[in-house]
Write a structure and sequence with these properties.
globular; 2 helices; 47 residues; mainly alpha; 64% helix
């Protein structure tokens, strides 16, 4: 289940996440939402 949360992200992190999003879209040839990229990144970092 997803939960809506409002957070503030520094510009440098936003840029890195958007670059990762673009890379995933290019590799997979499918749409990747910003939320999905953020969730996957957090899951990897918090293992």
């Amino acid at each position: 289940m997803s939960k809506r949360v409002t957070i503030m992200i520094d510009e440098d992190l936003d840029k890195k996440l958007r670059l990762r999003q673009a890379k995933m879209i290019q590799q997979e040839q499918v749409s990747y939402s910003y939320s999905k990229v953020l969730n996957e990144t957090l899951r990897k970092a918090l293992k």
